[in-house]
Amino acid sequence: MHNEYNYSVMENEQSDKDIDYVMKNSYDSLIIDIDKTIEEFIVFTIDDEVIEIEQGKGERSKFIDGMINYFETIEEFEKCQNLINLKVAVIKNGD
Hints:
This protein is mainly α. The chain has one domain. The protein has four helices and two strands. Strand 1 and strand 2 form a beta hairpin. Helix 3 runs antiparallel to helix 4. The longest helix is centred in the N-terminal third of the chain and has 30 residues. It is globular.
C-alpha cells in the first residue's frame, strides 16, 4: 500500500510540473507580442502542432481567466496583471 501512495504522489507532482510547463509556455506565447496574439491566439506550440483559439466565441477570455487563476495560486501577480491587460485587448477586438 505504501508503494501505491508514493506512486500517486509522484504522479501528482509530474502532473503539476506538466501544468506549470504548459501555463508558462502559453503565457510566454501570448504576452510576447500582444498585437500578434490578437490576430492569432496561439496558446501552445509543440513540434509541428499549433494550438490556437478562434476569435468570437468567448473562448479566448475563458482561457485567459484560467491562466489568471493558475498564476494567482502560485502568486505570480505580475503575470496576472499582464493577462488582465491582454484580456481587455482581446475583448475590445471582439472575443
